[in-house]
Amino acid sequence: MKKITLLLFVLLSLPLFAQDSDMKVYLEKTDTASLEQYELIKKVNLVYPDIMISKQVKNKFKNNFKTNELLSSDLVYENTSKFKLYNVTILDNRCLSYTFLTPDDVLTFGEVRTFDGNTVRTLYRLAKGKSLMQYFINGKLINEVKG
Fold this sequence. Notes:
This protein is α+β, with helices and mostly antiparallel strands. It has one domain. It is 20% helix and 50% strand. It has helices spanning 2-18, 35-47, and strands at 25-32, 56-63, 68-76, 85-92, 95-101, 107-115, 118-127, 130-137, 140-146.
């Protein structure tokens, strides 16, 4: 009986010590954009008006029960009826990525980054088997590759 009790105790207590001590929980929360996020969105919209301004963001956090770490923020738009898909994500306060899908199935995606006051954009467009890559600095096209 003592052996069975001891074995049962070991089997029940072993998983408690074997658990990962650095557990993570991923959370989403809709908030108003922070001042840094809004300034980035506004600056990008001045140069590239196809990326719309939004004051609402859906923040994605990683929480290990001690600290919250912001992973990314998706901009929340009220009316994007001109698009099948319209997604803009702020990765940090210097970079955002975007994806647009028009009703005629033209996929446009890329990133916008800010460096030393310059706004750099990479744009990739896929339409009916044809591809287009464009690179911009401060709204001016510097390179274009068609495929």
